[in-house]
């Protein structure tokens, strides 16, 4: 089983990057997944989508082919999104434009929202649940996490100051693993559409 954690912040370093590193550490200690891949979009930003993707332009082929291989290898995802103006991360939304169900379809995802404030953080969850799975066909598991006041919540040594939230994080990862196992059978039995023309 392979897990991919995507830090959706547009800065580096960032609070979402720290949250993603914390989750990777916890997932590793639980030994739920054989491999854990971390993609930080602040450190590795993608260009904005344009129609060259549909046309299979070489520049897009070079960018997307290795990334598609990484994302396709994953059995489950953790999507870490900072809150931008009451929305999910534009970088994370941009990423979702490049892949359809043949790459990410019918694979479970745990949403983790991050904010530097002591309040809010719920908006990226609502945004992703409403619009994040149309073409990707991510299957968002019922639970999600909100990391508020991230600068105080997780220190530089990747220690969390909220014991209850840490336990909820472990619970979410265990639940994600169960969904990953169950969804493998769905993918094996599902007949994916093949008429998409824009995937390089």
Sheet with the most strands, sense and barrel status:
5 strands, parallel
Order of helices and strands: EHEHEHHEHEHH
Number of helices: 7
CATH fold-level assignment: Rossmann fold
The number of distinct structural domains comes to: 1
CATH superfamily: Flavodoxin domain
The strand order across the widest sheet is: 2-1-3-4-5
CATH class: Alpha Beta
Point out poorly predicted stretches: 195-200
User: Would you tell me the overall average pLDDT?
Assistant: 93
Radius of gyration of CA atoms, rounded to a whole number: 16 Å
Write the layout of secondary structure elements.
Layout: E1 2-7, H1 15-30, E2 35-40, H2 58-73, E3 76-82, H3 90-96, H4 101-104, E4 107-114, H5 122-131, E5 138-147, H6 150-153, H7 163-189
Parallel strand pairs: 1-2, 1-3, 3-4, 4-5
Helix pairs in contact: 1-7
Written account of the structure:
By secondary structure, the chain is an alpha/beta fold. It has one domain: Rossmann fold, CATH 3.40.50.360. The chain contains 7 helices and 5 strands; from the N terminus they run βαβαβααβαβαα. A 5-stranded parallel β-sheet has the order 2-1-3-4-5, sandwiched between helices. Helix 1 (15-30) links the parallel strand 1 and strand 2 (35-40).
């Amino acid at each position: 089983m392979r897990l991919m954690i995507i830090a959706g912040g547009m800065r580096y370093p960032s609070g979402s990057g720290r949250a993603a590193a914390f989750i990777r550490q916890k997932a590793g200690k639980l030994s739920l997944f054989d491999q854990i891949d971390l993609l930080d979009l602040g450190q590795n930003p993608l260009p904005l989508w344009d129609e060259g993707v549909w046309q299979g332009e070489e520049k897009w082929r070079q960018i997307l082919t290795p990334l598609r291989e990484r994302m396709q290898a994953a059995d489950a995802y953790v999507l870490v999104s900072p809150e931008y103006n009451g929305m999910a991360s534009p970088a994370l939304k941009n990423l979702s434009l490049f892949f359809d169900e043949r790459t990410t379809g019918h694979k479970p995802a745990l949403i983790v929202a991050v904010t530097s404030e002591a309040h809010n953080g719920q908006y990226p969850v609502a945004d992703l649940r409403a619009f994040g799975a149309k073409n990707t066909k991510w299957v968002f598991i019922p639970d999600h996490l909100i990391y508020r006041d991230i600068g105080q919540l997780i220190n530089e040594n990747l220690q969390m100051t909220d014991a209850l939230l840490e336990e909820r994080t472990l619970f979410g990862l265990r639940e994600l693993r169960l969904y990953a196992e169950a969804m493998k059978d769905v993918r094996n039995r599902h007949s994916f559409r093949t008429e998409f023309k824009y995937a390089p």
